[in-house]
What we know:
Shape: elongated
Strand content: 35-45%
Radius of gyration: 23 Å
Largest sheet: 7 strands, antiparallel
Number of strands: 19
Amino acid sequence: MRVADATVRAVNRLTARWAEAVDASGTAAGGTVVSAAGVWPLLGFLADGADGPARAELADAVGLAADEAAGAARELLGAMGAVRGLDSALGLWTRRTLQLRERWEAGLPAAAHGVLTGDAAADKEALDAWAAKRTGGLIETMPVQVSEDTEMVLASALALRTKWLQPFREWPYVPQTGPWRGRTLLGLQRRSRLLDRIGVADTPAGHVTELKVLGDTAIDVHLLLGEEGMAPGQVLAAGVGVLARRHRVVQGPDLPYGDVGPGLSVVRERNTSPEPPTLNVLTVGYQVRAVHDLLDHHGVFGLTTARQRRPTGHFPGIGDFPLHIPSGTQSAMARFGARGFEAAAVTAFGAVGAGLPRLRWLTTAVRATFDRPFGFLALHRHTRLVLAAGWVTDPEPYREDEEDQ
């Protein structure tokens, strides 16, 4: 996938800002997932068609000049669509009587334009079918209310799936401390000699342990465990900062002995044979779903002015009719298991108007345990573009009928 560095920085910046805003609102406390990569292209196309204060606010949210935003959005959608295991799409639906500016419509991906019939039930059914098809059934409905007054719907869909290069082993795990104490959780264990998969970042908000779990489609998931007391937004923003190389990270091979980071220790232990240093990971399976009203954080997305009704509208570059953005919603999900990871997001803007062995040898073991709420970033390995981010507070329970295959 080839994406301009400026676009990657802009999308990841929006990820961090959104995570901090969700945290400040209190909604992250129950677990959440967001996909700024699903919102960013829509904001880019809206910025291209806006004027006045709305144009300036949208450009600030996008992190690029407004006249560059649509081209960058189109490039990002095309690049994501070319990645194995990652599907993305953009859709635009308008009333038959609404004529779009030829220049603006030409900037959209090919075959993106559909029609709203004015029959709210029929239109909603068609939009839901599009969302389900584009996410492979991970998101079954379009997160937008369609009425007879809806003039335009601009939406994106993103779905990603990857299988771990090294699977985990499922195990019933009962934490002895913390908020998950006493619960029988779906524990995931893995042992590896690749110590560089773990590291400790030194950030202004505190230390963060980062575990890289690599997928077979160049899509990876980074698990992030912060110090006790760090807020979800701080942990996720720290993870984005690590991707941007803004924070110093001590990698596994360079860690000293002792308790070296949140949930992380380096010890010498006896073994039955001489073994190289190992990384022993214990984490939990999880599934997170969330629905976000983007206008709750209108400042983050540059929609403060665009959401307000005015006689002339805010988007003369889209068409010769007054438009404002009274609704914007994202429905997202993420699932992390023993064999792989999948996530999806649909974003839409509506416009209205045995015995003891002999232990003779000593070996070094790095032990990483994620046994309390933690964050995650799903990203493209080579560009470091964040595709989804989230916070885990309610991991999957272990079920007796689950089999470790």
